[in-house]
Amino acid sequence: MNRTNVGGVSVSTDHFINGTRVSSVDRFEVRSPLDWEWKLADVARGGVSEATMAIDAAVAAFPEWAALGAEGRRVFLNRLADLIDQNVETIATVECLDMAMLEESLRLRVISRGARNFRAYAQLAADYESREWSSNGTDNAVLRMPAGPTVVITPWNAPFMLSTWKCAPALAAGNTVVLKPAEWSPLSCSLLMDLVAAADFPPGVFNVVQGLGEEVGAALVADPRVRRISFTGSPETGSIIGQVAAKNLVPFTAELGGKGPFIVFADADIEAAAQKAAVMFDDGGQVCLAGTRLLVQDTVYAQFVDRLKHYTSLHVMGDSRDSTTTLSPLIHPDHLARVDGFVQRARANGDAVLFGGRPSPTGLWYEPTVIVPVSNGSEVVQHEIFGPVLTLQTFATEQEAVALANSTAYGLSAILYTASDERAHRVGQLVRAGTVWVNCFLVRDLTAPFGGTGISGIGREGGEYALDFYSDLKMLQIKEGTTHG
Ligand code: NAD
Asked: Distances in Å between the alpha carbon of 335 and those of 175, 210, 359, 386?
């Protein structure tokens, strides 16, 4: 069994298959974005045989887990939720070193959201198990049948929370799960498997396979025994996995990239809007839901820019473990180069860098950056950058704001700032997005549908929508008067 010490926490660097740790001869290196010289771990690099072993385990464990029913499964899921709550500090320590999200926000909010996911879905699955009514001379029942072995593939940002967001409903609905975390931040999901073992889950119900996407990830999604694939990541990978799912006729849900508009109308509280706009730089801008295209009504443009500069200047670049830090580094040198590449190409294209626009002299930080593009067709407007880079454009009318908001291929989220409730409803209906926030951001109710339109995703998760995806609905009709016994 391979374990390593990560910030004082013992973390297994192996897979977790069929209730036990499984090693691989091949390993991949994980380094800390806080200090790229700091190697955190050599993690097992799974391939086809590990993928097959994990799906074997998920297939074998499925009938018993499904037969437990939602109430029976709730015991395990609630136990796991309690264990997450008891281990928030250690998970936060590891995820901060692995992914560089601010430790304080991990400790206070993000990790416990994982526990909430398990608790909420344990309850929801019990509440939504069946619907019954009579019509046409029959007693009818819609039964939510567990779908089968489910593969969950997750990205490197907020890996613990995003993995639990998908695994909780999949398990609550009665499916067995093989999770493959992203190779740039695989460690917190390994800690989750220690808790799965401590919660006494039956072997094979919840597995983790570590490794690279093109290797073990591709092998997992291609296995014809898999009955659901749930993916969060980039549109490019989503398209590749979607083709495999289509070939095997497997239902597939994809939560993909975003390029959300952040629309500020002249009637808005400009101070509040500018303050929130500066929040888009949090976590190094590595947030799919961020409103990265600032669209500001021309009459308040100067005032908004002035306040945005002010609030941006309050950000503190630093070590994510430090509670005074607000700007964390980017995840990986390759990602830093990618973000800087967008900014350099913008400059060459004639887009104006209003402020920021450079990497820090050392380390993986990038300055909070705002770019005024020469046109709406500029690459920085049309493509997700996934870094602390916002574009800034103006509009004169509400109609123009909506047209600009809807002018990219994405449709994940939108943020509006306005004092008018009527406008909030009107524009909220017209902007193309899975979620629209008005005068707020990242407020989430676990029962709300979540997902994107356009290249931002396929399908919806959240609440009963997730349970629908992770179940096969069965219609049972029994002729009235059929005798008992
Ligand atoms: P990515 O698409 O590169 O990788 C995501 C996951 O897919 C990783 O685990 C990777 O190993 C795996 N993968 C790669 N190729 C694969 C293949 N051929 N078969 C199976 N698995 C494969 O994305 P990323 O860089 O890790 O994450 C950033 C992206 O995720 C951004 O576009 C961001 O917007 C998006 N994201 C979306 C949401 C959302 O809810 N919509 C949330 C977080 C991140």
From this structure: 34, 21, 11, 9
In order, the DSSP letters of 226-250 are --EEEEES-HHHHHHHHHHHHHHT-
Q: Under a CB-based contact definition with an 8 Å cutoff, are residues 393 and 372 in contact?
A: yes
Distances (CA, A) of 216 to 16, 17, 46, 337, 401: 14, 14, 5, 26, 44
Q: Which atom of ligand 1 is nearest to the CA of 212?
A: 11
Q: Which atom of ligand 1 is nearest to the CA of 211?
A: 11
Domain 260-438 in CATH 3.40.309.10: yes
Residue 483's pLDDT band (cuts 50, 70, 90): confident
Span 459-479, average pLDDT = 95
Question: pTM for the full model?
Answer: 0.97
Query: Mutate which of 99, 113, 153 to test ligand 1's pocket (most atoms within 8 Å of Cβ)?
Result: 153
- Ligand 1 proximity of 458 Cβ (cutoff 6 Å): no
Q: Say if residue 244's pLDDT is above 90.
A: yes
Whole-number pLDDT of residue 485: 66
* Ligand 1 site-directed mutation target among 151, 160, 166, 232, most atoms within 8 Å of CB: 232
389-446 pLDDT, tens digit per residue, is: 999 999 999 999 999 999 999 999 999 999 999 999 999 999 999 999 999 999 988 8
pLDDT digits (tens, 9 = 90+) for 86-109: 999 999 999 999 999 999 999 999
From the options 1.10.10.10, 3.40.605.10, 3.40.50.10330, 3.40.50.1820, give the CATH code of 3-256+452-475: 3.40.605.10
Phi-psi region of 8 (alpha: psi -120 to 50; beta: other; left: phi over 0): left
Residues assigned a catalytic role: 255, 288
